[in-house]
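ok trying again, last paste got cut off:
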Amino acid sequence: VLDAGCLDAPTLPPAGSLMNNVGPPTDRTGRVNVILGASIFWDLLCIGQIKPCRNQPVLQKTHLGWIAASDITSVTQSPASISYITADAALQKQVERFWTIKEIDRAPVRSKSDESCELYFLQTYKRDASGRFIVSLPFRGDPSKLGESRSTAVKRFYKIEQKLERDPELKAAYVKFMQEYESLGHIIVVSDTTSGTSPVYYIPHHAVVTRVNGQNKFRVVFNASAKTTSGKSLNDILRVGPTIQPTLFVIVLRF
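nice, full thing came through this time. structure:
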């Protein structure tokens, strides 16, 4: 139930001379006197309807007289536009910072040890007549910390000699390898009377034999991890190079 006083009669455009007999003027707003429900409205209709023209109210005859009906939404309304602009410098800085944090640095991260090793290389390397690089051992510790290593190397040499005497084929390949190393200048013969003040480290070596496709393949391994009398080896005082194999993290990402 609505209070009749809370509504206003809509304004209708004039429909010509036929509207003169309708009653009160309909071209201006007025107060609503009575509200009829839909159940009564259809009983009030009579035969007689006039449609003046398009976009004009329809005149309908009723037991109470002629009424004018029109679509309220057909009344022209002025379009309205609303714009809202705001600037938040703090939010923009936060977004930029988020992008910076989430961006992956393409440049490799180098440690102080890597930088020191590179500087050592630049200060000590040289090239021979054939264009090959000659570099010094990248020590990270004092070579004087190495103890005596000759006795250990000699003992292991005697053991490898005994093994080679039992396998003539392996002995021939081993001797050929050492002769080739000597001819290339990788090793030189050291006199028993050689002495000096500089630290000396003797690297033991041995053969590793593997069977591939029914044939024995061997390679000579130089063991620079053999401990001296001081408990340190050559590898203990040398810098460690980068890992050549892929890391576990990279391998997992491949799946």
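cool. The chain has a mean pLDDT of 79. The first helix runs from residue 38 to 44.
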